[in-house]
Amino acid sequence: QQAALQNASAAQQAATQQAAAKKSAATVTIDEAAPVTAPANSTVDSVKAGGTYIDVNKTTQTLSLVVGGQVTYITPIVTGNVRAGHSTPNGVYNVYAKQTNRVLKGPNYESFVKYWMPFYKGYGIHDANWRSSGEFGGTTYQTSGSHGCVNIPPANMPSLFAAVAVGTPVIVHE
Fold first, then answer.
1. Distance between CA 161 and CA 127 in Å, rounded?
2. How would you classify residue 154: left for phi > 0, otherwise alpha for psi between -120 and 50, otherwise beta?
3. Which of 26, 53, 58, 81 has the most other CB atoms within 10 Å of its CB?
4. Could you tell me the pTM of the whole model?
5. Paired sense of beta strands 150-152 and 123-127, if any
6. pLDDT, tens only, 42-96
7. CA angle, corner 157, sides to 119 and 37, nearest 5?
């Protein structure tokens, strides 16, 4: 069987790996995820003063990782679908888990993601392999955005996932 895999094309190998990951993936039911937020006294200013945080800008549809007060990573994103009433909630939160190979379930959807970093109730940051690269960073969120999560291009998610620690503050704003 290994010989057959070695002779398979890169696309076939990727499909096989993704199918195996889906089969063994744990399921996260979005409505049941535990609500975890930043401490009550956390403000945007106090988080920024700490120097390391994730900045989710819904207006520019970008996510930036700030370390030591310097932007070290930036990526285009798609946030919650405004027209459908699924806007990503503004606030100050914390990444409360980092998980791989998850199936996210909610009303009327079930999506496999390779990387999942929840930050508030069922809201999180994850890869979105069902989106084309042209959908990220534009106006997609206004009419065809997510159910409230922050979607990241699949090619960009591994480096963000590696750079973020559990507990990292997340600031979501217009």
1. 10
2. alpha
3. 53
4. 0.79
5. parallel
6. 678 878 877 899 999 999 999 999 999 899 999 999 999 999 999 999 999 999 9
7. 5
